[in-house]
Prior knowledge:
Blueprint: E1 11-14, E2 17-18, H1 31-44, E3 49-52, E4 55-56, H2 66-77, E5 82-85, H3 88-91, H4 95-108, E6 112-115, E7 120-121, H5 130-157, E8 169-172, E9 175-181, H6 183-197, H7 202-211, H8 217-223, H9 242-250, E10 258-260, E11 263-264, E12 274-275, E13 282-284, H10 294-305, E14 325-327, E15 334-338, E16 346-350, E17 366-367, H11 368-388, H12 390-438, H13 444-476, H14 482-491, H15 500-506, E18 507-512, E19 516-518, E20 521-523, E21 526-530, E22 549-552, E23 558-561
Helix pairs in contact: 4-5, 7-9, 11-12, 12-13
Amino acid sequence: MRQSIKNRETTAALYPRLSRDDNVDGDSNSIQSQKKLLTKAAKDKGYTNLITFVDDGVSGVTMDRPGFNEMMTELKKGYIGAVFVKDLSRLGRNYIEVGRLTEEFFPENDIRLVAISDGVDTDEGENDLNPIRNLFNEWYARDISKKRRIANKVKGNSGEPLSLPPYGYLKDPDNPKRWIIDPEAAIVVQRIYETYLNGLGVHQIAVALTADKIPNPMHHWQGKGLDRGGLKGNRGTAYWNNSTVSKILSLQEYTGDIVNFKTYSKSFKNKKRIENAEENRAVFTDVHEPVIEREIWQRVQAKRASKSRSKNTGEGEKNMFSGLLRCATCGHNLNYHFNQQNHDIKYFNCSNYNSGRGDCTATHYIRLDFLEKVVLGEIRRLTKFAGQYEDDFVKAVVGHSKRMLEQDTQRMKKELDTLLARDKELDRLFERMYEDNVNGKVEDDRYAKMTKRYEEEQGGIVVRVKSLKAELVQEGGQLMTTESFISAVRKYTRAKKLTPYMISELIDHIDVYHAEKVDGVKTQRLVIHYNCVGAIEIPKHDKIPLTAVKMDTRKGVAVSYSPSQIAI
C-alpha cells in the first residue's frame, strides 16, 4: 500500500538478506538478528514507519531476488526516504550492480543508505571505501564459489552423490551419502516404466496417474516432511505434468547408479544450469539398490531415442510396431497408415518412398494384420525352440550374440582407427599449409578456404570418435543382457496374442522387404532382429513347425510368408 509522500522523512526500508554462504557466520547473520539490528538503528535515527523486505536463502550474486525486487519497486514510487542494511554485501555481491545503486540510484532519488556494520551513512557524507568494499564483497562470492566447485569436484569424483535423491529414493538416515528405496514412490516409478513399455505415451501416463489421485513427487515429499525446491504448482496434490513423467523415464539413477556433473554453470554470477556432455560426467554403477532393472531402463531409452514417433490412426489408436519396422532396401523407417476408403485396413510403407518422391525404389507395403500373424508365429517358434531344445537354444543365442558383438566391435574399431589416422593426417596438412602460406607458395584466400575445410572435417571426426568410443563401451556390456533375453523368451511360451510389452522386450527391429514373386507366389520377406542377439535362424525340427501366413490384399492378390525365404 502506497504511503503518503508527507511521511517520506520518517519512512525507511529494512532489508535483511541471508544466503547459504552466510550460515558459516552463525546466528549473527540470521534474518531475525538482522531485523532487530536494523529496527533499532532506524528508530535511533528517527524513522518510525518501517517497512521490511526479506530475502531468505537467496545468494547476493544475483540481483534478481523477490524481496529486493519488491523493495526497488517501492523505492521508485518515492515515498521511502532511507534504506537500512546490516552491511553493503546484503544489497548484493555484484560489484557493478551494487555500485550503480550506491553511486547513481540512491543519490539521484535522494534515498539515504545506512550500512551499519560498514559504518556507512550517506547523510554523513560520501565514504570513499564503499567501492572497495563492494569489490571485496564480489571477490568473497567468487572465492566461496571457487571453493565450493573444488569441494564438489572432489566429492563427485569419489562417488558421493552431489544431488538430492530423485523421486523413488530417500537419504539413508544412517548414512546421508547413501540412498535407500522409498517403497511408496518406487511402486509408482515402476508403474511408469511398465506402462510406457506397454505402449502408453508420456501424456497418457500423466493423465492416468492424475486420475488415480496419486500424489505427485512434490506433494509426496511434502507429505514426508521433506523440503524440496521447485515449483509447487496450483493444480492439486495429484496433478502430474508430462515433464515430470518424462524426467522419471530418463533418470539413469533408477538402475542403482550415481551420475554426477550432469549440469554446470558458466560462472558464479550466472546461476543458469547447462547440460554437461556425457563424457564429462562421472558415473558410478550399482551404488545403491535399483528401482528399475538396467535392461528395462535401456529398452525405455532406446524407445525414447527412436527418431520415429508412434503415429495414430484416425481413431486415436496407437500401434506397437511404429518405430520398429525398417526398409530392407534403404534403411528408413516404415510409416503407419490406414486406408482412406476402409479404415479397418491398416498398413506400413517406406517413409523414403513417399509415393515416388523419395529415394527408395519400392513402397515395401505390409498390412498390419499380416505383420501381426507373422511376428506372433515367429515368437511362438522361438519359444518352442527354447522349450523343446533348451541347450541348443542357449548355445545358439549366446553364440550368435557373441559373433554379432565381435563383428560390430571389429567394425567400430576399424572405423575408429581410420578416423584417428585421418585426424593426425589433417594436423600434418595444417602445418604444411601454414608453412606454404608463410613462404608465399599458397595465397591467403586459398589458405583460408583449405583450413576452413580441414577444420570442419576435423570437427566431424571429433564428434564421431566420441560416439564410437561410447558405443564400444556399451557393446562391452551387451553379453551380460543375453541371459535376460533368454529369460524373457521363456515367459511367452503360452502367448496367444501380441502385446506392446512383449514386442519391446523381445524385438529390436524388423527388416521389411518389398513383396515379390518367388516360384510364382507373391511372397513377403521379413527378418526379425531380437534384442541383444540380432536375427537368429531357428533350426528346422518336427516340433517347431514353420510359420505359414497367407492373406489377400486389398487388390485381391494373395501374399504369403515363409521363414525359408528369409536371407540372413
